[in-house]
Fold this protein.
Amino acid sequence: MPAITNHLPTSELQALDAAHHMHPFTAGGELAAKGARIITRAKGVYLHDSEGHEILDAMAGLWCVNIGYGRSELADVAARQMKELPYYNTFFQTTHVPAIALAQKISELAPGDLNHVFFAGSGSEANDTNIRMVRTYWAIKGKPAKTIIISRKNAYHGSSVGSGSLGGMTPMHEQGGLPIPDIHHINQPNWWSEGGDMSPEAFGLARARELEDTILAHGEDRIAAFIAEPIQGAGGVIIPPSTYWPEIQRICDKYEILLIADEVICGFGRTGNWFGSETLGITPHIMTIAKGLSSGYQPIGGSIVCDEVAQVIGSGEFNHGYTYSGHPVASAVALENIRILEEENVLDHVRKVAMPALHEMWHGLADHPLVGETTITGMMGSLALTPHKDSRARFAMDAGTAGFMCRERCFANNLVMRHVYDRMVISPPLVISTDEIALLGQRARTALDECYAQLKDGDMLKPAAQ
Ligand code: PXG
């Protein structure tokens, strides 16, 4: 049975792609001129492209392929489920075994009283669910004015109108009339870029207290929830100072504010525990999940909801849901993914083998002249490119220019690292071996060397005015 595969020369596929395929978060014209790289297959931590390159994927796809590529067990489960029950909805008082089993399993893994799952097809959809769920919760409790959701600048919560509004990405808000009303954004806990002369600890507290200031400015009776990623992922792997989350938790507890932890990246082992909330010491009312839930093998997301919120929402009809909520094939694949994570002790591998090696390798890059700081928690890390280490300077040229150049050097060396402006980020499959981590480190250093040489040659190592 043929897969849809590399049946045409690369240039023809690129021309067809340019003619008919609109890419997410991409300048279409620019890509059409250059030609997209065509990924044909993948195994373990390696991607293969149509030109015969074997590329080490230090991003696990898009922060999601936690168990690595090519696990045929998931394909077998999908085929079996498709033959038995390819689709049925869960709207009109029906259910099916895959959705039941997955909801039960997620409830078992999730901490505390997070015992209920509302399924979605993606993280964006799940966060849209969350907006409607927290506002509906307060309305049912007789507080319909509690509609404001506080989020953070440079947060990423998805790309739909609702979740894009929750996110704090300025370029996204500039297109399509975002944000929707009653979403407010406080500053992010990014000490390296924004901490100035403060210690990380003092800065973490100051940034957390912006939450309290915002609650007080609008009045507690207007605030529904605060949403945040335990560690910002798409924002550049911003690991908050140690003082930040305890203070956020104190503030949410003090005022009647629901806390939503967006675990789309941090969940399912990425930080060394099942959920980032456990690593960062957070007790949320709702968690958003997607990505690592199925290791990206099927599109599936959801909201894990605590007993109290689920009970209130369940007291009436919640007029919300997606055709593919709890999709049987996606649910069965997610269950199989979790089985592999559990039975192969992937979290043990992360904690005892991969994390120590990855942290040592990553921090080893800190001596590079182009690297300002290296930071890493669990299996997600970032480094800041800088023209001047001591002053934590930004580049005088447009933000992202150096990052893009570095990413191109990575690709040229058969390594996928993503850049977020001038930060390079990694989030490799959790199953990565120590040899593969060493190779990642070698390729990253070569890419940094080449990028540094290019910047030097182009006289581009100038710091911005402080
Ligand atoms: N929350 C978080 C924390 C995410 O990282 C979403 C929600 C939305 O999930 P869906 O499944 O709707 O994409 C995400 C997604 C990047 C990048 O370039 C990151 C994401 C998506 C696309 C690109 O880092 N994260």
